[in-house]
Amino acid sequence: MIWLEKYKMLLIGGVVTALVVFLFISKPKEELSAGGDAGLPGVMEEKSEKPFEMEEHEVASGPLFVDVKGAVSSPGLYEAKEGDRVLDAIDQAGGLINTADEKQVNFAQKVHDEMIIYIPEKGEVVEEALPAMAAPSSTQAAGKININRADLSELQNLPGVGPAKAQAIIDYREEQGPFKKVEDIQNVSGIGEKTFEKLQESITVN
């Protein structure tokens, strides 16, 4: 019986020792497992940011180009940036000339790519507030050229009109205002009756 009691105590001691050793060994594994799990959200978070960065890259816009026409110092094609206003584009074109009709221009409107900004002259009638619409075409449906709106290159398409006469028409228009009737073009230096006879069927003032 004494031997059995000793054996029983040794058995209990061995079980307790084994339990302590087991707990000691298993504890680092749990911490390692917890540490590994804690790292996963960080990895997932890093991956979730990449699609957002790609989306920002996709929506990035390039340069914008606007065509400024009409009563400005230097009509032409100008580069703009996102957020620019019509006023910024006009400044790039050298500003308005004296005959420009500011009342018909929305200076605060934001520009967009391929936009045409047409600045009318005083006395010139347009159908809508500018520049929300495209610039009025200088070539009418009947094939006539509007001498109040045509630029230098368009005027040279008229019979008997070269670079010098085309520039003279523009200079007269800027100094005297828009033509009231087609016959008024004869007031331009270098354009007499013979030239007028050649081009009267090809021009309009409306």
What this model shows, in words?
The chain crosses the membrane at residues 7-25. Residues 153-172, 183-202 form the Helix-hairpin-helix DNA-binding motif class domain. GO terms for molecular function: DNA binding. The protein is mainly α and 206 residues long. It has two domains: 62-136, Roll (Ubiquitin-like (UB roll)), CATH 3.10.20; 137-206, Photosystem II 12 kDa extrinsic protein (DNA polymerase, domain 1), CATH 1.10.150. Helix content is 44%, strand content 10%. The chain is built from five helices and five strands; from the N terminus they run αββαββαααβ. It has helices at residues 2-59, 86-92, 152-155, 163-176, 193-199, and strands spanning 64-70, 76-80, 115-119, 145-146, 203-204. The chain has a three-stranded mixed beta sheet with strand order 2-1-3, covered by helices on one side. A two-stranded parallel ribbon has the order 4-5. Strand 1 and strand 2 (76-80) form a beta hairpin. The N and C termini lie far apart (130 Å). Mean pLDDT is 76; it is low at 29-34, 36-40, 42-60 and 128-141.
In short:
Helices cover 44% and strands 10% of the residues. The chain has helices at 2-59, 86-92, 152-155, 163-176, 193-199, and strands at residues 64-70, 76-80, 115-119, 145-146, 203-204. The longest helix has 58 residues, at 2-59.
